Amino acid sequence: MNTKTILVIIAIVVSIGILFELQGRFVTGSPNISSTSGISLSTNPDPLQPGPATFLIEVKDKNGKPVDDAKVSYDLNMTTMNMGPQQGDATPQGNGRYSAVGRMTMRGPWRVSAKVTMPDGSVENRDFTVDVP
Ligand SMILES: [Cu+2]
User: Does the structure show a pLDDT above 90 at 6?
Assistant: First the structure.
């Protein structure tokens, strides 16, 4: 094997290494790109007050289209203490909206954790912090 052959082999090995590196970056970057669907929360009453509350979780795909056949479960609790379990499946309302009911048993910061299983089986978790003034 002469020097020229060895240099060519080294060049090929380095090129393949660079290609794998680039591909690795592309693959690890793609989940972030594909998880840009929109999950948003609104409350009734707004602002919240002590007592019963309705949470409306709105699910849109990455094109901004409402997603009706998702499964949405929720977990409601205070951010600073455990106020007891309030969780379940949100009820589909159509137009990408899912409703959940809860009771705000104390003033202060609460968290609504939504787990959305999209029709393609992918799961997205989103936490919302809401305040009961
Ligand atoms: Cu509390």
Answer: no
Q: What is the Å distance from ligand 1's center to 107 Cα?
A: 7
Q: Any idea what the CATH number is for the domain that residue 90 is in?
A: 2.60.40.1930
Number of domains in the chain: 2
Instruction: Determine the distance separating the centroid of ligand 1 and the alpha carbon of 85, expressed in angstroms.
Output: 12
CA dihedral 90, 91, 97, 103 (to 10 degrees): -50
* Secondary structure element (H or E) that encloses residue 93, with its range: strand 91-94
**Whole-angstrom Cα distance, residue 31 to residue 10?**
33
Same domain for 81 and 62: yes
Is 85 found in the same domain as 53? yes
- pTM of the complete model: 0.72
